[in-house]
Amino acid sequence: MNWYGKLNILSNITRGLEWMHESGFIHYNLHVGNILRTGTGKTIITDVGIKKPTIQFTSLLRDKEEIYGVLPYLAPEVLHSKRFSKASDIYAFGIMMNEIISGFPPFNNVAHDSELAAEICRGTRPEIPEHTPSLLTELIKRCWEKKPIDRPSAKELNELLTQWWNDLQNDKLSEINVQCCDEISRNSSTFTPTPLLYFSHPEAVYHSRLLEFDEVPRSINTNRRSKLLNSFTYSESRRPFNYLLNWLHSLKKLKKQS
Question: What's the mean pLDDT in 126-142?
């Protein structure tokens, strides 16, 4: 998919998110599984405001509020203090934005467990591909800020992404157009490098579920990446055979532990 197509999808999502937030709603469980693309090219956000399963189990009636969602899309303050807000929706959008650009699900190379939750709270984020225009890279990073107040609003996101999409559509000489053209020339293609094949960790889970972790650290911004996550990069992911070997190795370790 080219940059025009990706910005079209992203601007569609932020348009719906802006309307939702301006109307006083929080999504609570924003991830790509709740984004639908119609036959006419429209992008729709679904499952608005669904924080817990429809069937209320006895365990949900406790005073303690569990987290329900998809771990890689949950903001640090949600994992640590269960504080859902419009800003936590923005964090989730930043994860989706990087996923749409990269073609990879977030944290697909590691188990989605308490260790990953702790790493997210310590500042670990999915890797942004090198080919991403700097304007988009900086916007993604702003969505991932430690302090919710430092993240952009849905209104700002919609205005920026819609403007950039219009610039590309009208072939307007603008910074986003120049950056996308530079990226295209570097890759000698009108398409950004999106993987055709990748392998996910056997304990990577991308459907909504109840998440109950022991106490996780308070969020901090850091450039540090754990040894576990540092073993995988996007350049490596373009060599599926090597990644398959790593995946099989992790699977063997899991079997030994069981």
Answer: 93
Strands 43-45 and 35-37: antiparallel
CA-to-CA distance for 85 and 92, rounded, in angstroms? 11
Overall average pLDDT of the 48-68 stretch:
52
SS3 3: helix
Whether the pLDDT of residue 242 is over 80: the answer is: no
Whether the model pTM is above 0.85? no
> What tokens does 190 get?
């009108």
Q: CA–CA separation, 33 vs 10, rounded Å? A: 15
Average pLDDT, the chain: 78
- 247: Cβ contacts below 8 Å, ≥ 6 apart: 109, 199, 200, 201, 202
Q: Which residues of 26-45 are buried (b: 16+ CB within 10 A; e: fewer)?
A: bbbbbbbebbeeeeeeebeb
List the chain domain ranges.
3-53+64-257
User: Of 38, 161, 35, 133, whose CA–CA distance to 92 is shortest?
Assistant: 35
Calculate mean pLDDT across residues 107-114.
93
Report the distance separating Cα 52 and Cα 73, nearest Å. 16
Averaged pLDDT for residues 240-258: 52
Cα–Cα distance between 183 and 4 in angstroms, integer? Answer: 13
Distance in angstroms (rounded) separating the CA atoms of residues 58 and 70? 21
Of residues 221, 211, 226, the one with CA closest to residue 119: 226
Label residue 176 by pLDDT band (50, 70, 90). confident
CATH of domain 3-53+64-257: 1.10.510.10
Q: Which pLDDT belongs to residue 217?
A: 64
